[in-house]
Amino acid sequence: MTMELALAELASNVLQNGEINEAPFLEGDAAAALAVGLAAIAAGYAERGIGAAAIGAIAEDDDLFVPGLIMTVLPETIVILALVVVFV
Amino acid sequence: MKLGASNTEYVNARVRSRRAKLFGDEDYRKLVRMGPSGIARFMEESEYEREINELGARFSGVDLIEYALNRNLAKHFQDLLEWSEGRIEDLIGRYLRKFDVWNLKTIIRGIYTDTPGDQIRTDLIRAGELDDRTLDRLLEVDTIEDAIEILEGTVYYEPLGDGLEEFEETGALVPLENALDREFYEHLLDDLGRPQEGPEAKYVEFLQAEIDFRNARNALRLARSGADLDPAAYYIEGGVLFEQDELSRLVTDYDELVDHIAENKRYGDRLSGALRRLREADSLIQFEHALDAALLQYSDTLSSIYPVSVSAVLSYILAKEREVENIRAIARGREVGLDESEIEEELVIL
């Protein structure tokens, strides 16, 4: 009984005196960095498949080098779009 | 089963490019009008250039065409296994065991008829899982028992061993060949289970179709020939069209067998044209060609449902095989003097 009382007193003391500093989980910069990073990972994943297919096509026919290259870097555009959030 | 990531995209790109290089209707129309030497020349200017040049010095005429076709087929399918990795290699390899079975059958028949190894060698299609060394050793042995000994450790050892006893009793090769076929078809669906959707479900669906068609073909042949053979011995498990006891019953009644195929939900519509012809003309060969064409079309449909999957590879394998068989049919037909329309009937073109 006495123990419980003591605890309650302690708790109320802490609540009255404790100062709470609120800060966001992520700062704006960190959130932008995360956005760009995730976009880059997604682009990389997309390019993995396209790149493999492009190399396959080039191995069969050399003329496909340029189309293959263009197709491979297309997903890169999502990283560029993600870079926009860094500047706003 | 092999683990690890598969490079489906890479294999698909290469396969589709090669698929595009296969002969089209136009080419067949030209080929049908040519003699054997003309066909050889035509092939020399196409995909088959290297093989024709390599073999040109040793063979001529229809033999040259045939060996060049075999060698080209083997080269392309070996390539498939070389490029692919992981799961997709496993799936392709399984299907290409077909050629192991073909090679083993050829070798066993060769030994049975005392054909010298060098002559058997030219008929092999080195595209399966058995490596060149094993095949070469198989060519050197004189008895079927020795040949089976060499296969110890492969999947074919046990079924062949079982078939051997029956072979020794009857002296017919059928039990050995059946054992090989069964082994091949039943391993196809190993550990795949019955996936409900996704590319592997289509792979299974396609293989089931192949097994069903094989069963249907065997059943029709048995029904037609009226031979007193046990249909159960030819039954291959894994299909959806026939149950084993069903098949045994149907073989005795030809019309009912045809009806059974026509009533099937999956294949009835697809084969309706062929079935009608089968009823009218009683032409088994036409029906078998129709089955082949249906299978080819089926694999094409599947490969457009899941564009980047093993289906495209399967449809390429089938199309390539079909091309080789068509050219062979043209060359052989020309050699024995069939006219153009007769040869065209022998071709399977979509």
Concise structural overview:
Chain A has 88 residues and is mainly alpha-helical. Chain A has four helices and no strands.
The number of distinct β-strands of chain B equals 0
User: How many independent structural domains of chain B?
Assistant: 1
Could you tell me the radius of gyration of chain A in angstroms? 27 Å
Number of helices of chain B: 18
Q: So how many helices of chain A?
A: 4
Largest sheet of chain A: none
Shape by Cα distribution of chain A: rod-shaped
Largest sheet of chain B: none
Layout of helices and strands, plus pairs?
The complex is a heterodimer of chains A (88) and B (350).
Chain A (H helix, E strand, L loop, with lengths): L1 H16 L10 H33 L4 H9 L2 H12 L1
Helix pairs in contact in A: 2-3, 2-4
Chain B lengths: L7 H13 L4 H8 L3 H9 L4 H8 L4 H23 L2 H27 L4 H5 L10 H9 L3 H7 L6 H14 L3 H15 L10 H27 L18 H7 L3 H10 L8 H10 L2 H22 L4 H26 L4 H7 L4
Helix pairs in contact in B: 1-17, 3-5, 4-5, 5-6, 5-17, 6-11, 9-10, 10-11, 12-14, 12-16, 14-15, 15-16, 16-17, 17-18
Account of the protein in words:
The complex is a heterodimer of chains A (88) and B (350). With 88 residues, chain A is an all-alpha fold. Chain A has one domain. In chain A, 80% of the residues lie in helices and 0% in strands. Chain A has 4 helices and no strands. Chain A is rod-shaped, with a radius of gyration of 27 Å. The mean pLDDT of chain A is 85. Chain B has 350 residues and is mainly alpha-helical. In chain B, 71% of the residues lie in helices and 0% in strands. The model of chain B has no long low-confidence stretch (mean pLDDT 81). Classes of the chains: A mainly alpha (88), B mainly alpha (350). The interface between A and B is small, with 11 and 11 residues. Chain A: Residues 31-87 form the V-ATPase proteolipid subunit C-like domain. Chain A: Keywords: Membrane, Transmembrane, Transmembrane helix. Chain A: The chain crosses the membrane at residues 64-87. Chain A: One of its GO terms (cellular component) is proton-transporting two-sector ATPase complex, proton-transporting domain.
